[in-house]
Amino acid sequence: MPERQSSEVDDMEITLNTGSTVYQGAIIKGGKTFADAEGYMREAAYCNINPEDFDALGRPWFVRITNEYGDSVVLRAKKTNTQQRGEVFVPRGVWANIVVTVYTESTGSPTYKNLKVDIEKCNGPVLDPVTLMRQEYFGGNMHKIWKEKAED
Amino acid sequence: MTCTDVTCPVCGMSCDDIYIELTDDAVLTKNACLMGDAKFQELRSHHRLTKPLVHGEEASWDEALEKTADILVNAKRPFFFMGSETSNEAMAVGIEIAEYLGGLVDGNATICHGPTIMGLQLSGQVGSTLGECKNRADLNIYWGCNPADSHPRHMSRHSQFARGFWTEQGFKGRKVIVVDPRRSPTCEAADLHVQLKPGKDHELIDALMTMLRGEEPHPTVEEVTGVSRETLNKMAEMVKECKFGVIWVGLGIASSRGHHYNAAIAMRFTHECNKFTKFVINANRGHCNVAGFNQVLAWTHGFPFAVDFSRGIPRYQPGEYSCVDALSRGEVDAMIVMCANLGGHLPKKAVERLAKIPMIAIETSPGTNAFMSDIILPGVFDGMECEGTFYRMDNVPIYARSFTKPPFDFTESNEHTLKQLFEIVKKKKAEKDAREAKQ
Questions:
Q1: Contact check, Cβ <8 Å, A107/B118
Q2: Is the model's pTM score more than 0.90?
Q3: ipTM (interface pTM)
């Protein structure tokens, strides 16, 4: 375990923006969210971080993002110059939606962008979409399809 | 089989120049973008849903329709979600069933450009067709959108790189401003990237409007928006100097804090620009026929989205009857989703509700939406396997022809599916009413 640098922090408050990318779009529009779960994870389960924030977080492989209600999701960390300091980008998808809040300001549209969240370094793992949805949404409801199949 | 000039049913641009070569086991496309090609490949994919499923078990078509009608007729607050990847004709039937049963109805616009439409209702939109932008625009402002990713052919067909009647120089005669907190791939083509702080669109537009009126913006403008005065001045000058400017707004405006107020001030900014030059504002709408849902609901019931029929008359209230709000409050007790991927696009709290209530999906692939559904009625690809009308993102209707048939014979189109369902719903509702009258 490398020693922590003085500039590193345990967790930081950061602004989350979500949005589409063409590769994530190709998976979603092509209906391959589960047929190509690996591709879906590759194109939607990551978090773009500014290089300075990336260093401050301790150059993580994985990060955990937590919203104000305590919902959290683990994503792969990517260091990119496309982000400003203090903001991260996660493509649209089931992972980002775990932390997107239903606060719609009476418009019907959730806070997909410009959402204050906490970000911290973690050891993974990033869950595949089936496991993630089963874990987050099917607490005890045995009547939904795919659930039993996913357990096989 | 070879087909030309096929309409692409993927994003809001409805590109109508796709070339398709269809064989028994493969699909070859030309002109389609990455997303369009992925969708056309679905015609020959191995995972296509071709049989009705009830609780994960194969069922007959009639049985699946009967069970669907049972759920809808017996629900107290059924929700009809008319997704965007289908035709106006299918949406119209869905809306009719919702009205008949006194349910709620909403479409993809609610989680997309719904706030932009509310902004339009507040301020009024100076709009245009995509053709006008292609032929006239010498300034494109991409505000909170990233067409390089979300509409890959947008810049080459309708805006930046296209050669038009009065813009035959193409990109050499046009300027681009990108307003985006992140350096998106679209910025590669930009003359000016206004990298504002996230969620400060309203403040930035306000400052620009002040400058256009010849007054000084507030001294804290740089600190608040994160944009230098130099960049602001440059942007204001570019706006004043152009002959025909277009603001393409994306979800950066509609999904950010301020939602419809951001859209409303962006439209007022467009009014202000018209004092100097011709300026229009268009929404970069992302999902196939998402504009069509607004149009169909508006011309049948007077409102663009988020409508409740429970009192026998259409009532419009975003934030109350809209999908995310109604689901997260826990008041919806049955849901039918046509051609939309709600499982993969709604926030957690809303999807939690979907997991608890009976859900029916008209669906083509076993994705996140099918994962949440109790009953699956196989969907048909509009514009490929059946014909129909799509509204393009500039609200121009495009008639999409079909070039093949669905891989099953129990339905011809999603419209046909809903019409069959409606007949059974009417029968069951009459039985239920008679039973209740007896008691």
A1: yes
A2: yes
A3: 0.93
